[in-house]
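Hi,

Apologies if this is the wrong queue. I'm a grad student, and the batch job for Popeye domain-containing protein 2 isoform X3 from Neophocaena asiaeorientalis asiaeorientalis produced an output file that my downstream script rejects. I'm not sure whether the problem is my script or the file. Here is the sequence I used:
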Amino acid sequence: MSNNGSAVGQLLWSRPLCVGWRRDQEGAVYHLATCLLLLGFMGGSGVYGCFYLFGFLGTGYLCCVLWGWFDACGLDIVLWSVLLATACVLQLAHLVYRLREDTLPEEFELLYKTLCLPLQVPLPAYKEIVRCCEEQVFTLATEQTYAVEGETPIDRLSLLLSGRVRVSQDGQFLHYIFPYQFMDSPEWESLHPSAEGVFQVTLTAETECSYISWPRKSLHLLLAKERYISRLFSALLGYDISEKLYALNDKLFAKFRLCFDIRLPSLYHVLGPAAPDAGPESQKDDKDVREPAASPSPQALPTSVQQTPPSSPPPASTSPPAPPPWVRMSRPDSSVLASRTPLQSYSQVMSRGRAPLAPTLTPEL
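Support response: The file is valid. Your script probably expects a header line. Output copied below for reference.
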């Protein structure tokens, strides 16, 4: 142990001491390199902290190269400074590559901040979703159709990014689709993953629109593999479908002043298209319908439509009159239906032989 200590002491103290200090000082390049190295070692953490650190260190070592080449005239100083400056430049290039790889396109970045960030969706999971749609953004011109009723197959799921889309059936307007809403969520939920089908509505762009689309098979594979993404899509699609049902209910309330439960299946029979021959004949149909619908049973009406009928004395005849024949009549114009009372409108719909707006007998669960 003493021999090792004496060897270290000989290495430290056997060197000749400085006889005299140099009177001329180093040039400005040397002092600049020292200042840059000092600033570089004061860098913080994180990506931008690493940019600060290696940026100043690389510049400082480059100044050391110039100082060793012009002033110190030392080959070892030049070689070591070149090596350290090269390491800093390579590290900066790696950081730039990582930032470029993690950066999303502008549309997907805005989609993440609007739809996924409030739900605290992790960025890696969102990147898996974006990778499934291949980071492609599609466009629709004004009055261009996204899907045609009875023709377009259901082979994808799309999300509207900008613009407005009109949904119609048999030429009758149903509702709008606004940005950051799914364009075909009911069709997606209505089919089994292995089943095939076509659209039952027509989707037309009212303005210039942009949207992203996931292929059906690729998205089903992703949902089967990633349980978190599957639950996320289930929540988003459920919320989107409920918004569409509420939009239909609002249209029904604005048209007939009737507000039904959104879980009822047959709102379209009230919102459906009017017959082309709804002229004076519709008024005759209205008179024929008012008789059997004058005293409807309260149990056969939905809760929101039940009204107290006006009290009137019973007829004096002992035998009730024979009901009129039950015939299927043409549907009157929508303006005629809107001008009637809710009770008359509901009776007219029931007399057409269509599905009721509410089940008369609800099975007990």
